[in-house]
Amino acid sequence: MSHAVPTGRRSSFGTLFPRVSPGAKFVPPLRGVAVVRGHWSATLGTRTKACQGWGTRRFLYPTLATGNKNVARMGHPARVNLHSTRFIQLSMSLNLFSPLKLRSVEFSNRIGVSPMCQYSSEDGFATDWHLVHLGARAQGGAGLVIVEASAVTPEGRISDGDLGIYKDEHIAQLKRIVDFIHSQGARAGIQLAHAGRKASMSVPFGGERLLKPEEGGWQTVGPSAVAFSPTYSVPQALDQAGIDATVWAFGAAAKRAVEAGFDVVEIHAAHGYLLHEFLSPLANQRTDAYGGSLENRMRLPLEVVERVRAVWPEHLPLFVRISATDWAEGGWNADESVELARQLKERGVDLVDCSSGGQVPNATIPVGPGFQVQFAERIRREAGIATAAVGLITEAAQANEIVAEGKADLVLLAREMLRDPYWAVHAAAALGEAASWPKQYLRAAPHKSPARGAV
Predict the structure, then answer these.
(1) Which residues belong to the active site?
(2) Which entry of 42, 203, 291, 441 is 20 to 30 Å from 348 by CA?
(3) Residue 454 maps to a domain
């Protein structure tokens, strides 16, 4: 609920508000954090600090105050002066550290580690690198840690260093990772993927290139014999037998994810990989039941979802990552994404993870902070399904605003988590929220931080 703030009057929370521009809104903040964006200043007595960008102000009870927590206790209200700014509307029941429940699974907060390829596997097996990489982010307080794109077939790997879940022998190492994530109070997810026409590449550390046959390269597949770019292979168009085998492979991978103990499975239908290729007219030039109309282009992704939902336990949530737009003329677009999300919801998908791009190399993408949040917000509103926002989300206040304004139910961070595995507990401190810490690290935690418990 928003409240207009009359100039110079006291609100029901006992705070004297400063002069504000006509129509300015103030929303009583949640648990002692006010979030502002733009040009603003904070005033305490005769001292005023000019600020710009994102900011938070902490206090003891719902009032508008600065970071000096003695202000409210002493009864001397501090003021935030609105310039070319607005207060971010905060839900009185939800913020970044509110729990989230999907089916039977409860996440301790709305912070997730986005799946990020590590290119550190051999024959698809997880290694100590994956245990430490993913385990550190669980230690850091994220409510959900999603294992990188894991190929459902050997030919579905982007590179020969990709993680896989295409044979039963992969389960044991994945379970080791899941168990550690759970020990840190986090939920464990895994992204099931097939790279399609973007497969059979070298690991990127020395410069990405197409693998030669003598290096173990393989024939790629796709909806049509159209290469991603001149430096990629021309894929073989999947026939009906190949499509059926792909659907079966996703289902078999989901069964292995159950055995490994994962709480969430995410189907990868984004970034120009196989399922996204079938969705987009830029890659799909078929004239059969899997090409042409929107209904036909959605057919394979929906068949995969139906198969996975059939074998994935009813009490566990299912996610799908999509590219909400190709950012290219004639490609997949946001309107189609809304319709796809409606179809996904009907088939038992619980959350749509909203990314974008990856279908063509020459797309013009307006990259900037939170540039993909608009898609999560629109799909959540128009399709009536939970969404995750991802993409250049770096600041605690920024992430909190996404949840508090109802733009998304979950915030996924990728590169920022690489820079700071403990982003979640640092965000809690910045927002004035309590966050649990591993008991081994409590000596370094904020005062009175609770010890982390397993799930």
Answers:
(1) 273
(2) 291
(3) no
- In this structure, the answer to whether residues 238 and 318 fall within a common structural domain is yes
Identity of the residue numbered 276: H
Query: Max Cα separation, the chain?
Result: 77
Compute how many other C-beta atoms are within 10 angstroms of the C-beta atom of residue 122: 9
Same domain, 298 and 218: yes
Q: What is the pLDDT of residue 452?
A: 96
Query: What is the model's pLDDT at position 93?
Result: 57
Length of the chain: 455
pLDDT tens figures, 295-347 = 999 999 999 999 999 999 999 999 999 999 999 999 999 999 999 999 999 99
- Tell me how crowded residue 343 is: count the other CB atoms within 10 A of its CB: 16
- Torsion sign (Cα): 318, 319, 320, 324: positive
CATH code at position 230: 3.20.20.70
Residue 41 predicted with pLDDT over 50: no
Burial profile 380-391: b = 16 or more Cβ within 10 angstroms, e = fewer:
beebebbbbbbb
Q: Which domain holds residue 198?
A: 100-443
Rg (alpha carbons) of the chain, rounded to whole number: 24
From residue 73, how far is each of 49, 81, 223, 235, 346 by CA, in Å?
Answer: 21, 21, 65, 68, 51
Residue 43 has pLDDT above 50, yes or no: no
Q: What is the pLDDT of residues 334-347, one digit of tens each?
A: 999 999 999 999 99
Which stretches of 312-395 are DSSP H helices? 334-346, 373-383
Nearest alpha-carbon partner for 273 in 333, 200, 337: 200
- How far apart CA 427 and CA 266 sit, in angstroms, is 25
**What does the alpha-carbon distance between residue 10 and residue 109 come to, in Å, rounded to a whole number?**
34
Amino acid, res. 75: G
Q: What are phi and psi of 170, to 5 degrees?
A: -75, -20
Nearest-angstrom CA–CA distance, 389 and 373: 5
Specify the number of domains making up the chain.
Answer: 2
Residue 94 binned pLDDT confidence (cut-offs 50, 70, 90): confident
Give the strand pairing for 144-151 and 33-44: unpaired
The enclosing H or E element of 134 equals helix 128-139
Of 370, 368, 363, the closest CA to residue 411 belongs to 370
